[in-house]
Amino acid sequence: MTQNFSQTRTLTLGHLYPDQLNLYGDRGNILTLRRRCELRGIELRVVGLGIGDALAPDEYDLLFIGGGQDKEQAPVAQDLYDLKGIGLWAAVEDDMPVLAVCGGFQLLAHYYRPAEGPDMRGLGVFDAWTIHKGPQVARCIGNIALGWNGSTLVGFENHGGRTYLGTAKPLGRVLKGHGNNAEDHTEGAIYRNAFGTYLHGSLLPKNPHFADHLIALALQRKYDREEPFAMHDISLDLVTDQFNHHTTEPNLPATRDTNADQLSPLDDTLEWEAHAAMLERLGLYSEAIDVLRTHHIALNSSTAS
Amino acid sequence: MRKSRPSQAGEQEGAPVLREPRMGPQPLATKRPKTRNQRRRTRQRHLEAGLAVIAGQTVGVLSRRLHLGGGTSIVGIVAQRVYPDIVEHLATQLEHGSIIITGTNGKTTTSNFIASIMRHAGLYVWNNKEGSNLMRGVAAALVTHALPNGQMRRTAEAISILEVDEAALPQVVRAVPPRVLVVTNLFRDQLDRYGEVDSILQYWQQAIKQLPDTSTLVLNADDPAIANLGIGFQGHILYYGIDDLSLNLLSQQDPTDVHHQTLDTRVCPACGNAYVYDVQFYSHMGHYHCPTCDTSRPQPEVSAKHIHLDTFDSWHVQLEKAGEAHELTVPLPGLYNVYNALAAVTAAQALAVGWEPISTAIEQAVPVFGRGERIEAEGRSIRLLLAKNPTGFNEVLRTLFTEEVSRHILFVLNDNTADGHDISWIWDVDFERAVGHTTTVTVAGTRAADLALRLKYAGLPQEQITVVPSAPLRALRQQIIQARKARRARRTGKLSAKQAAQLQPAAPYGLKQALSVALQQTPVGETLFVVPTYTALLEIHRELGQRGLTTNYWEGKNV
User: Fold this and answer.
1) Which residues of chain B from 503 to 532 reach within 8 Å of chain A, CB to CB?
2) What topology is assigned to B371-472+507-546 in CATH?
3) What's A155's domain CATH number?
4) Whole-prediction pTM value?
5) Model confidence over A110-145: pLDDT tens digits?
6) Across the strands, what pairs with A197?
7) Prediction ipTM score
8) Cα separation, B148 vs B50, whole angstroms
9) B382-410 average pLDDT score
10) Which of A43, A93, A134, B353 could serve as a FRET partner for A282 with CA atoms 20 to 30 Å apart?
11) CB-CB contact of B83 with B42 (8 Å)
């Protein structure tokens, strides 16, 4: 009803280091975003950004960076800092939604201090830092649930490093599980529209409200801006490939009424049942009841077929 | 008298042997202890070993009598408690020593192939087929077949074939230095237990450092992580691999095959650069080289030149072994079983076994526990295909969906400790491949909801999918109670038939119902493919056993 668009809306997702940082089912996040866009008639293009590729912020509407093994993280950290740092900063300051999971989250904070060896420098998007306390300190592994935005997020965490927040706001408060450091009940970090988190499993399939939040932010930023889209392309001066520049045409304000609540609702029964099953697994029974009640899920709605 | 009872009990179970031991236990006869002190220590060790054997076997028998479980691991735990060196003591008695098999996927099938080859070659085989593949399982396997005097029941012409968990390898190798160590492959598996893929490599490097120079390493040439294990090893190394270029994914028309492969080894450990693949079979298995340094796939001693799929579960393989050409039939589904057969051929080559026993053993192989096993039930066939990590799962799906046949499938996903608590790997599995190739799909297990969600996002039609979780949501319990009350009211006549018809039946849950639902949806005469994770496979077996369809796996199937 609210979606009477003369032209299909498109979003471009920049997937950072799809080959190096893909350890924990991160593909699920991409699949979820793509499908949830598709079902609403939004085309989601996914562009992989590997080592050596530059990041031109005005070519993307969303960014995703996953987690990987420690061994693979060092060259990625270097590349992120050298080649994509300025572009990513510009994107974040311009309110582009960014989702950084696990290793990606660590790389967007100030630094990662391994148990041995030199510090890995991060981008400092989040005022936070990560310390690995050595093999004697147990890894934070297990199912996790947090309170977010009046609702819950569920996932699985598996990290050796412990992250401490400076002035960065946490993504949520840990209800069950370890969180950033197993000490202060914080999980993840937020700066503008950039979200860092340790939740994989994958994060977005079982948390459809969070997936929609990211999509809505991206749509809003792209199609709902009051001021015309005017990104100052400092970063492009660093990029050798100047020729692609002209391909991003200024966007006509096709719609003015898209915002977070106006994404058309989908049948998320299966999603919320999986979400509630995890909450119950963690002993959060009243939260599970809340989730099912909020989303009007009754017995047999998905299984009777 | 009292002493010998437990061993008799043990003998009866392990008894369906091909040949009875020809003679009594062989003495340790290698070296005579010289001094009285040494002799006393030897006697002491025999005594302790004997006690350990008796204690272990007694507990095993009790545990089985009391139905506490398979009663296999407990035998090893108790025996090791009584005499910590029991494994070393028993394993070193065997005339032909031991072969150890490890790797992420294919351990069990490869061990089964090798055991069968050795039997066909006339050897007497001890293995840990029924037990766990941790140290205690190895201990249990040996203790079960030992005599109360601390000797193996049979040592002459005997060999032990031990399947060993990736992380337990250093410990087992220390106790049992193998004549041959076979390493099949390395994929991401149970990251919550092992941490990262690389930590497994460290365990293996540690284990290989402990090997004597007289050991032979049998390594998969097509897996770069495995091939690199040979670097720096002083002893003999035999590689195996596939050289049939028609299986190359990179040259196939359908680009999705390449796209959905999860690479678990990507970079050269020497210089950190990404490997370049000339040929890729699946995941990171293929012909690779490092663009900057000299590292490349070693030339395999045993190589499959032509591979042809005859039927769903029969491969015809033309292979070259030590310069000779041979033909082999592998009667199991999946390309991964060709690799398993090659590993077994190479291990046999390491012990200079002739071709005849090798080909006979592999051609007559029957699927082991859950690896393609067929069970007839209610006029339908059930095939069990264990899948416990992304690459294993991908290969099972490829096996199921390459032919143009629509399948009936029951997926069971558990997240118990033996499966790994982290199930995020299901998002790395290429379920998209199943779209258009399924008729009915039942999803069960402790994480049924997660798998159902994965299938939904893969694009499987929702109306094909039935979700039967392990337990109903507690949040919905109120509704379940109401449904139950309504049914009771209907029975007692308080509710009219019309009213009752409006009530939905309670949703099924639990594996028993899942299996029933899946079987019902499979027409008589067709096959239901069951794809479970590890603990789900155990549950399925138990359930089938209760329906009288299989024997319990721990009962006397050793030989």
Assistant:
1) 504-508
2) Protein-Tyrosine Phosphatase; Chain A (3.90.190)
3) 3.40.50.880
4) 0.77
5) 999 988 888 889 999 999 999 998 888 888 999 999
6) A101
7) 0.84
8) 5
9) 89
10) A134
11) no
Beta-strand relationship, A98-101 and A62-65: parallel
Q: Which of A293, A303, A305 best probes binding to B when mutated, by most B CB atoms within 10 angstroms?
A: A303
Report d(CA B388, CA B384) in Å as an integer.
13
Sketch the domain layout of chain B as residue ranges: 5-363, 371-472+507-546
Same domain, A242 and A275: no
Report yes or no: A107 and A77 within 8 Å, Cβ to Cβ: yes
Tell me which residue of B369, B384, B375 sits closest to B548, measured CA to CA. B375
Across the interface, which of B196, B266, B479 has its CB nearest the CB of A70?
Answer: B196
Interchain contact B235–A (C-beta under 8 A): no
Q: State which residues form the domain around A277.
A: 267-305
Both tokens assigned to B241: 């691999």
Residue A213 known to be catalytic: no
Contacts of A20 in chain B (CB under 8 A): 266
Q: 10 Å Cβ neighbour count for A295?
A: 17
Residue B132 preceded by cis peptide, ω within 30? no
H or E stretch including B41?
A: helix B36-65
**Residues sharing a CB contact under 8 Å with residue B493, sequence separation 6 or more, in sequence order:** none
CB within 8 Å: A299 and B507? yes
Distance (Å, rounded) from C-alpha B341 to C-alpha B362?
Answer: 7
- Decide which of A20 and B242 is more confident: B242
C-alpha distance from A72 to closest chain B C-alpha (Å): 9
Residues A193 and A288 in one domain: no
> What is chain A's Cα-based Rg?
19
Q: Which residues pair with B219 in a beta bridge?
A: B183, B239
Which residue from B223, B225, B274, B247 is spatially nearest to B334, judged by alpha carbons?
B247
**Furthest CA-CA distance within chain A:** 60
Helix (H, G, I), strand (E, B) or coil at A210: helix
> pLDDT tens for residues B350-372?
999 999 999 999 999 888 778 88
**Closest residue to A305, CB basis, from B195, B466, B479:** B466
Query: Does the CA dihedral B369-B371-B375-B378 come out positive or negative?
Result: positive
